[in-house]
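Could someone model nicotinamide-adenine-dinucleotide with this protein?
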Amino acid sequence: MGSRLKGKVAIVTGAGSVPGPQDRPPIGNGRATAIVFAREGASILAVDNRLDSALETKQMVEAEGGTCSIFQADISRPKDCNAMAEECLKIYGRIDTLHNNVGIGPRKACGILEADEEDWDRVMNVNLKGLFHTCRAVLPQMVKQGSGTILNISSVGAVLHAYPKLFIYTISKAAINTFTKCLAAEFASLGIRVNCIMPGMIDSPPIYKEILPLYGGDIEKMRKDRNERVPMKHMGEPWDIATASLFLVSEEAKYITGQILAVDGGLLLQGG
Ligand SMILES: NC(=O)c1ccc[n+]([C@@H]2O[C@H](COP(=O)([O-])OP(=O)(O)OC[C@H]3O[C@@H](n4cnc5c(N)ncnc54)[C@H](O)[C@@H]3O)[C@@H](O)[C@H]2O)c1
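Reply:
Sure, complex below.
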């Protein structure tokens, strides 16, 4: 067990994982981050709208000797987010880190003229407004403590239009980058740091549901294309997002706020 987050309390949203293909471990960005934070001594509140999946994360963390509690919340609901923060305080007495990992894609991959307004609302309510709710739920406690870190997860899609038919997702992620800067500026003098990671092509379970249709359901075609698009010639692992997240929420990054870090194997070198 490491000690880079010793004594810290971290809320990780979307800390469960959706089912993926047989030949990959059932570990996405959120679950990997919860595990890595716990390995470095943080006590975790694993939050997900699917409680069974948060429970699996808790079992994985505890199997390694870490500390993890779970909470069911849909982050698009302000009531759930407030209850999440209250639960964290009830269990651990403080909130040091909020890791805003949740992000969803549209139900229909299409251009603007074919898109449903309902799909726009659904993605924006989770990806963007969800952060408004989670941040507002934890910030009063962080202000009281005089310290805290918030880490948002956007996407290289925010600056590189990688999948035009996922434009709603892309727009929501671009707004997260700006949201990060607004929040960082407002809370810098209060000891609260806010940063953002833009993952690139990551081989995590949700791509096998949300991205696969863009390749006609052909898994090998999707993997080949995503590997080839990256200058390093392979997709990243959820662990790459988790370890970069660890740095940004740890004391090693104590003078870093308002930054948007691409973790993308060089993808943005090609025109971001
Ligand atoms: N995989 C990639 O290639 C990639 C690329 C760029 C950005 N990202 C971003 O990384 C983040 C997550 O990574 P991932 O794709 O590995 O997913 P993940 O495996 O971390 O899973 C996300 C979890 O969020 C939960 N969830 C979904 N909607 C929710 C809601 N409304 N409230 C609470 N929980 C909810 C799901 O149940 C799931 O367990 C997202 O923000 C995603 O947009 C991923």
